[in-house]
Amino acid sequence: MKTDSWLNKRLDRMKEAGLYRQLRTINKQIVFSSNDYLGLAKDKRLISAARKTLDESGGGSSGSRLTTGNSEWHEKLEQRLADFKQTEAALLFSSGYLANIGVLSSLPEKGDVILSDQLNHASIIDGCRLSKADTVIYKHIDMNDLEVKLKETASYQRRFIVTDGVFSMDGTIAPLNKIMALAKSYQACVIVDDAHATGVLGEYGRGTSEYFGVMPDVVIGTLSKAIGSEGGFVAGSKVLIDFLVNHARTFMFQTAIPPASCAASYTALDIIEQSKEKRQQLRSQITQIKKGLEEMGFTVKGTVTPIIPVIVGDAQKAVAFAEKLQEKGIFAPAIRPPTVAIGECRIRLTVTTEHCSNEINYLLETFNLVGKELNIIK
């Protein structure tokens, strides 16, 4: 292809900067980068539910929901999600990424403004770019800056505040109670992407809404993390869902997720509501890993979530760290720009309930060895 030479030069520049990425096959390694926080992806109950529905309905959905792709399982799961999130209704999308883009590209209009957290996920950023509304960025979970931006945007027709519930690269939690209070004072609509909070935060795993005891206008989520399946969803009022069915292009023109995925997700939601012990175990593991790394001298971000970023700084050093971990049987990738800011390169650890105490101890021992070898800790 004529463009190959030009593309190779661009790839070479990425390699020189330590930003080149490759697909890796994980084989016989301890994975500390999974989003399957409650270990449900391989749960026999989910597999059984999916297999039964697979035999009945086949491997695919055959089309978009508005043509041939709608089934009883889609509607059943939507009602279950609405009950779980304690909203009037819910709508399935084929991924959380598509749900974010669908909401943000259709809900705000020209003359509106979206106030977006500085560290929001790429899917939110892309959704804002596709929107006809203007976008204003506020500093990460900085409520003073958000209020300043709300005051500065008073002349807009409508204001939308959009935030991750749990931020995927820093493991921080959006102060949803404070965001909701500001939204009420300044008549703004709140949109929350609860992808990394669903199943993890709150007494019953309902996410940041339950964690803070508030209810945003729009809740977006994924079925592919703690729920252990595949797909995305939006939960909110019946009017909101009706609007999205008629306006969200990533719903209207996208093939629906298979009914088997719906059945697995439905089963997972039942398990999540009954899995307080799993969340307690997860919190204990998070504390152990964070405390161990900090005592060694590592700079560790994150709060009470399973996302534990260990800051390395330099991209080349972060890549070397990840490679040495992999040599020792641990898979935990290096995160580099543009995913994070320059100088903020890191090893992004995640912990799940599937990790046993021996694996966690080995992780800490290995981090200590590699950290000293690369002169990151003393």
Task: Describe this entry's structure for a reader.
This protein is 44% helix and 15% strand. With 378 residues, it is α/β, with parallel strands linked by helices. The protein has 2 domains: 19-38 and 276-373, Aspartate Aminotransferase, domain 1; 44-273, Aspartate Aminotransferase, domain 2. The chain has a 7-stranded mixed β-sheet, sandwiched between helices. Strands 9-10-13-12 form a 4-stranded antiparallel β-sheet. Helix 3 packs parallel to helix 11.
Largest sheet: 7 strands, mixed
Total of DSSP H or I helical runs spanning 4+ residues: 14
Q: Order of strands side by side in the largest beta sheet?
A: 2-8-7-6-5-3-4
In terms of DSSP E residues, the strand content is 15-25%
Strand tally: 13
Q: Count up the domains.
A: 2
CATH topology of the largest domain: Aspartate Aminotransferase, domain 2
Do you know the CATH architecture of the largest domain?
3-Layer(aba) Sandwich
- Give the overall silhouette: globular
CATH top-level class of the largest domain: Alpha Beta
Compute the average pLDDT. Answer: 96
Radius of gyration: 21 Å
By CATH's scheme, which homologous superfamily of the largest domain applies? Type I PLP-dependent aspartate aminotransferase-like (Major domain)
What string, H for helix and E for strand, traces the elements in order?
A: HEHHEHEHEHEHEHEEHHHHEEHEEEH
Report the oligomer: single chain
C-alpha end-to-end distance? 50 Å
Residue windows where pLDDT falls under 50 for at least 5 positions: none
Instruction: Give the proportion of residues in helices.
Output: 40-55%
